[in-house]
Amino acid sequence: MCCCLRSIVFYFVVVLFILGDVTADDNCKSGFFGWKCRFRCNCKDGQSCDQSSGDCPTGCHDNSWGPGCILNNKCAYNDIRYENYVGTLTKTEYGHTCAVWTLQKSYPGDQFPDDSLEDANNYCRNPKPLTYKTWCYYSEDNRTDWDYCNIQKCSCPLGRFGNNCRHECHCRDANEACNQTTGFCQSGCNRQWNGTFCQDGPYDKSELYDNAKNKTSHDTSSDTSINVNWVNPILISLPEVPDVSG
Ligand SMILES: *[C@@H]1O[C@H](CO)[C@@H](O)[C@H](O)[C@H]1NC(C)=O
Ligand SMILES: *[C@@H]1O[C@H](CO)[C@@H](O)[C@H](O)[C@H]1NC(C)=O
Ligand SMILES: *[C@@H]1O[C@H](CO)[C@@H](O)[C@H](O)[C@H]1NC(C)=O
Ligand SMILES: *[C@@H]1O[C@H](CO)[C@@H](O)[C@H](O)[C@H]1NC(C)=O
To answer: 142: left (phi > 0), else alpha (psi -120 to 50), else beta?
Structure first.
């Protein structure tokens, strides 16, 4: 009886230990995502995001878009013609409110970066593209016209690069933010990754989110310190989209 109880307690402790270890190893803290959990997502209503992709369950917090909603609505990123902008800005540079694209027959859905014309809603876009700016139609006083949207070119948040900042850096020095346009890492690729832009990998999946656990020892030859959480400085420093409707 006493031995039976003892073994039950023993297994209970073992199970707790394993569970605790699994959560510590495999999960980012709520609200963080990406390799080594370095990015803080910006979901609607403060919801937590998918720890790998940063996808939010019901979309982005106001004025944000992109992976983990860490991009600014008034910015396009490594997108020369603004043709891949899929942010949610709905005001033109003269303050008109954009009309839904479905009202326009001249632009089929496949000319949009969105999955469908419906997804483009009434957001500033550069379908086709014919110009080097985003724009939209608007309807006022029984007439329809169009206007450009004032979207800037911005640098990707630290730790990301490429068109729409869709790629993450995986530099040998995990604290190095690679070139925000090209992805080049001065320190080379992290040992779990290779390829020109360190995008092939990881070769050991257990390394994916290991910033979430408190390591007592780790291979200092590759990651020096890995407690960087890259919150997007652009989101914090740029002003909100002004309300120009009034
Ligand atoms: C728009 O058209 C409707 C119907 O043709 C008309 O009643 C209304 O006065 C017009 N509004 C403006 C602002 O011109
Ligand atoms: C990133 O690389 C581009 C192209 O080589 C270069 O023009 C740019 O200055 C680099 N950016 C930084 C921050 O080093
Ligand atoms: C990338 O790394 C893996 C594992 O270390 C290795 O098998 C593979 O050959 C490497 N590929 C290149 C192109 O270096
Ligand atoms: C990691 O360890 C430090 C120091 O022991 C502690 O202050 C911190 O709260 C720990 N973090 C986590 C996520 O357990």
So the answer is: left
Range of the domain at 115: 90-150
Ligand 1, atom 2, residue with closest C-alpha:
142
Give pTM, 2 decimals. 0.73
Is there a contact between 69 and 106 (Cβ–Cβ < 8 Å)? no
Ligand closest to Cα of 177 equals 2
Structural domain total, the chain: 1
Mutation choice for ligand 2 from 77, 155, 156, 179, CB with most ligand atoms inside 8 A: 179
Is residue 130 included in any domain, yes or no? yes
Average pLDDT on 17-27 reads 44
* Residue having the nearest C-alpha atom to atom 13 of ligand 3: 195
Please report, rounded to a whole number, the percentage of residues in the chain having pLDDT higher than 90.
Answer: 58
Question: How does pLDDT run across 224-245, given as a tens digit for each residue?
Answer: 344 455 555 444 443 333 343 4
What's the gap in Å between 215 CA and the centre of ligand 4?
9
In a domain, 105, yes or no: yes
The dihedral over CA atoms of 190, 196, 200, 201, expressed in degrees to the nearest 10, equals -10
